[in-house]
Amino acid sequence: MKGVRAFSLCQHGPFWIHLRLDKTRPWSLPRHSRFVIARSNATVTQKLDLTRAAVNNKPDIKAEDLAQAIRRGKTEINNKLQLSPVQKKVRELRQLTRQLQVVHPNVLAKALHRGLLFHNQEFLAINKPYGVPVHGGPGVRNSISDVLPILAKMIDGMRAGPELHLCHRLDKETTGTMLLARSEMAASRVQELFRTHQVEKKYWVLSVGVPVPSEGVIDIPVVEKAISGPQPHYKMALSPVYRLSEGGEGVTRVRANQQAHGAVTHYRVLASSGGCSLVELRPITGVKHQIRVHMAYALGCTILGDHKYSHWNKLTPQKLPEGVLRKLGLEQSKARYLPLHLHASQLTLPGISGKGDITVQCPLPKFFTSSLRKLQIPLPEKR
Length: 383
Hints:
Elements: E1 3-10, E2 13-20, H1 31-56, H2 63-80, H3 85-102, H4 105-114, E3 118-119, E4 123-128, H5 148-155, E5 165-166, E6 175-181, H6 184-195, E7 200-208, E8 215-219, E9 222-227, E10 233-238, E11 242-244, E12 251-253, E13 264-273, E14 276-283, H7 290-298, H8 322-328, E15 342-349, E16 358-361, H9 366-374
Parallel strand pairs: 6-15
Antiparallel strand pairs: 1-2, 3-4, 4-6, 5-6, 7-14, 7-15, 8-13, 9-10, 11-12, 13-14, 15-16
Helix pairs in contact: 3-9, 4-5
């Protein structure tokens, strides 16, 4: 039997058909077969025409329209993410901290100039913002010491005035009053006053827990220790010189650690509510992280946002009670973004060269007052 192969199209692609050659009806097919092939050809032609029409009638998509659609989608996503007021404040604070690290030094100097608390011919006091280190170092783009020359020109009207000198330091996360001197000699005198504990300093902290008793003096030395484990690190710790006797009826003096530093802190609870409290502290000495260690380990009331001293042997975010999280409008997973609520509220410099004392007060930052309001802790009427 002879036949011939013919090429055809269908919806599944091209294929070959073997046509049988009949002796009596050469090049002919049964009538129903011819109808099937004709119908298939008509369907393929119709689909090809529809495809060409769709291509020719394709709407023009402009880049501007596409960008607007993407922006609308992002806006809708952002609108769906409902943040509490505290979460918004925390996000704004994080953004401000990052901005202060990347802004031009003139911008940081201008912010310090606007927040000037006190100045005379010898000294001036600034309101140190959160997240700005006092000294520069590896990875630090902006610091207080770096912008002092610019700040001096702003204060003296852009004329070549005296340089500004640091008298003391505050931690990067600490806010509040910071004293500067207009001469190296004045800075040396103030540094000596700090060294001999003649400068009266007052700090306000927002603590998780209420100290008992509500007022007292903590006199426990502090020493730096190496913490081993999955996350090796260093932190300050208590180094007591007394321990409870075996019967628990008295105390016994133990040998003092040669590396420890004497640390004395006076504290007083100003207000409390819902398991949190506003505490005023007056450190008599000036040991590194003295207030944070005494609050966390001596009183058992960690400062809100103090993730370093919330745990002893690990570096993890502060674990907050459910009631505190509910009032702050936070989830525990977001507690890592809470800033340290430690504020240098007041500084009193004793009279120098027969002059009177200098007392400088600094208002609380916005994130601090916002947390107090959420926790329903009232501010004292007189500071």
